[in-house]
């Protein structure tokens, strides 16, 4: 599952340039958490269109780790890109004052959607395309908020597993500090992806790669990694499939959006 | 004779823009001394057409065809397009020369697995017919046609000097040494050119349709199985290679594969195999 980072970089840079110009935009905008994925995407965007056409948006909440914001600010200054820093605590807490809850997932989803809402507002103000930062591991495991961090116009890293992004990030010169810290959605204090998922990305990626990319029979993969782990992963893959799809549309007419009204995403743009 | 390989990124569904791009590459190829230009699969329409097929398909009597014929007075060329004939739509290739449409190949093997669903949108062709292109005998294959060695074999039996492969092959299967798909096409050309003693010109497109990136990596092999030219991966490129009928003759003296072939035995055996249940 190792990649050739040079070729992946070339493909991603071509993709970013092509899609931006097709849509008629010069700039891209990225929600920057200070973690591996968004930092890697910002590095790629800067290489594709130059620092003058890349915008980073740092959107901490009061529960976000201080390190995240500091790392994000460091990335922004190293890359020399324009950035916004917008504290989402007032908006999110204004809502929870009216609708109180201690449920961490509800609170986390609200934060993710608040960030999405800000990104899309800035996208229109800046005429900058929202570049997605969900990786293949997260997409397959459904580890993301629908209409939150999963929302974007184009996603250059959605077909790369977390472990492959680590390899790409190293090649691109993403600071070691960011590459080595434990992956976290940072939606509550002490949250880590691997703690929540109950498996390390190293292991999850190997299982997903065998099942999905190589289409190896389940029994063979279970023999190697254990039945419980494989079961747990497959349950997530199917249970959260809806997060990867547009909403289900009831078919009534002879030609229905999303079913038999079939055009490329790039039709006549 | 120099043959140019035009590795372009067509615009999806925009025939006028693509026609302009063909004109541009033909002019550039001519400056490089080329006497023939090969464009990739669906070069005039783009690949991921889906429900656009009936809207962009060309009829042989259409004005776009007239423009293409006119353009062939500059240089002869192979181009790819959706073709409409009697309310059927084909993924097709045309050879244009001296103001005429000389030959059409309709893609026979339409990929319909994994990311591909061409059978949903196109009718299947049913012929692998070599033709005289002026400089030699040529057989045309479109993309998936070529991944079945049996199709090249049919052109081998027709003693072609050149197999033209027009492709819209995505870059996929990332591995440490690059995209495995690019290696796959190269492997096929190495084998086909050597064992069927023919030139192979594989012209793939680049660019993106709906997030699917096309690999490029176009190449040509000579009839002894040596690579003559390699184009860039993932970006537009234009390069030429030298074609010589004499070189084909030399390859068949070195390796008389056609002379020693027993097509009547193959035919008899195929009949036997197909009749067995």
Rg of Cα set of chain A: 19 Å
Tally the structural domains of chain B: 1
Query: N- to C-terminal separation of chain B?
Result: 49 Å
- What is the largest interface, and how many residues per chain? A-B, 20 and 25 residues
For the report, how would you describe the main beta sheet of chain B? 6 strands, mixed
Distance between the termini of chain A: 35 Å
Oligomer: heterodimer
Radius of gyration of chain B: 18 Å
Number of strands of chain A: 4
Can you count the helices of chain A?
12
In CATH, the topology of chain A is named Rossmann fold
Question: Would you mind describing this structure in some detail?
Answer:
- The complex is a heterodimer of chains A (269) and B (277).
- Helices cover 52% and strands 6% of the residues of chain A.
- By secondary structure, chain A is an alpha/beta fold.
- Chain A has one domain (5-244): HUPs (Rossmann fold).
- Chain A has a four-stranded parallel β-sheet, sandwiched between helices.
- Chain B has one domain (2-275): Nitrilase/N-carbamoyl-D-aminoacid amidohydrolase (4-Layer Sandwich), CATH 3.60.110.
- The mean pLDDT of chain B is 97.
- Chain B has helices spanning 15-31, 53-56, 63-71, 149-157, 180-195, 245-254, 257-260, 263-275; strands spanning 2-7, 36-38, 77-85, 88-97, 100-106, 131-132, 137-142, 162-167, 174-175, 178-179, 199-204, 206-209, 212-215, 219-221, 227-230, 237-242.
- Chain B is of the alpha/beta class.
- In chain B, helix 1 (15-31) packs parallel to helix 3.
- In chain B, strand 7 (137-142), helix 4 and strand 8 (162-167) form a beta-alpha-beta unit.
- Helix content of chain B is 30%, strand content 29%.
- Classes of the chains: A alpha/beta (269), B alpha/beta (277).
- The A-B interface holds A 2-4, 7-8, 10-11, 14-15, 18-19, 154, 261-268 and B 9, 12-14, 48-52, 171, 174-179, 207-211, 213, 233-235.
């Amino acid at each position: 599952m190792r990649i050739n980072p040079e070729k992946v970089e070339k493909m991603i840079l071509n993709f970013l340039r092509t899609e931006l110009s097709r849509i008629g935009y010069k700039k891209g905008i990225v929600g920057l958490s200070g973690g591996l994925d968004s930092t890697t995407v910002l590095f790629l965007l800067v290489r594709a269109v130059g620092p003058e056409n890349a915008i980073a948006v740092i959107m901490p909440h009061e529960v976000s780790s201080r390190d995240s914001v500091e790392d994000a600010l460091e990335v922004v200054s190293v890359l020399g890109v324009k950035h916004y820093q917008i504290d989402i605590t007032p908006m999110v807490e204004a809502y929870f004052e009216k609708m109180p809850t201690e449920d961490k997932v509800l609170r986390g989803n609200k934060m993710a959607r608040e960030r999405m809402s800000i990104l899309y507002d800035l996208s229109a103000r800046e005429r900058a395309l929202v570049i997605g930062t969900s990786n293949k591991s997260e997409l397959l495991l459904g580890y993301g908020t629908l209409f939150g961090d999963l929302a974007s116009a184009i996603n250059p890293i959605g077909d790369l597993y977390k472990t492959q992004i680590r390899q790409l990030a190293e090649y691109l010169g993403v600071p070691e500090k960011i590459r080595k810290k434990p992956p976290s959605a940072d939606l509550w204090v002490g949250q880590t992806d691997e703690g929540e998922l109950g498996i390390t990305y190293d292991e999850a990626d190997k299982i997903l790669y065998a099942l999905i990319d190589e289409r190896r029979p389940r029994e063979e993969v279970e023999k190697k990694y254990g039945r419980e782990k494989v079961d747990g992963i497959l349950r997530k893959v199917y249970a959260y499939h809806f997060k990867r799809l547009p909403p289900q549309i009831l078919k009534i007419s002879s030609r229905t959006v999303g079913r038999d009204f079939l055009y490329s995403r790039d039709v006549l743009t | 004779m120099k043959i140019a390989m035009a590795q372009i990124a067509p615009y999806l569904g925009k025939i006028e823009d693509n026609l302009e791009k063909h004109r541009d590459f033909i002019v550039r190829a001519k400056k490089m001394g080329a006497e023939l230009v090969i464009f990739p699969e669906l070069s005039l329409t783009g690949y991921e057409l889906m429900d656009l097929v009936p809207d962009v398909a060309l009829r042989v009597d259409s004005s776009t065809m007239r423009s293409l014929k006119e353009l062939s007075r500059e240089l002869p060329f192979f181009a790819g397009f959706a073709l409409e004939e009697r309310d059927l739509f084909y993924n097709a290739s045309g050879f244009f020369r001296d103001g005429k449409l000389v030959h059409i190949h309709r893609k026979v093997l339409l990929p319909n697995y994994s990311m591909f669903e061409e059978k949903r949108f196109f009718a299947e062709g049913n012929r692998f017919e070599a033709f005289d292109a002026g400089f030699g005998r040529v057989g045309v294959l479109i993309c998936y046609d070529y991944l079945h060695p049996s199709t090249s074999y049919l052109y081998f039996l027709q003693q072609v000097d050149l197999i033209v492969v027009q492709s819209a092959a995505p870059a996929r299967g990332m591995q440490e040494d690059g995209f495995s798909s690019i290696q796959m096409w190269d492997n096929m050309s190495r084998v086909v050119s050597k064992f069927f003693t023919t030139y192979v010109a594989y012209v793939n497109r680049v660019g993106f349709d709906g997030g699917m990136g096309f690999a490029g990596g176009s190449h040509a092999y000579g009839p002894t199985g040596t690579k003559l030219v390699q184009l860039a991966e993932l970006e537009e490129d234009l390069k030429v290679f030298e074609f010589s009928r004499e070189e084909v003759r030399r390859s068949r003296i070195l390796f008389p594969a056609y002379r020693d072939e027993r097509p009547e035995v193959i035919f008899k055996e195929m009949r036997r195999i197909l009749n067995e249940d």
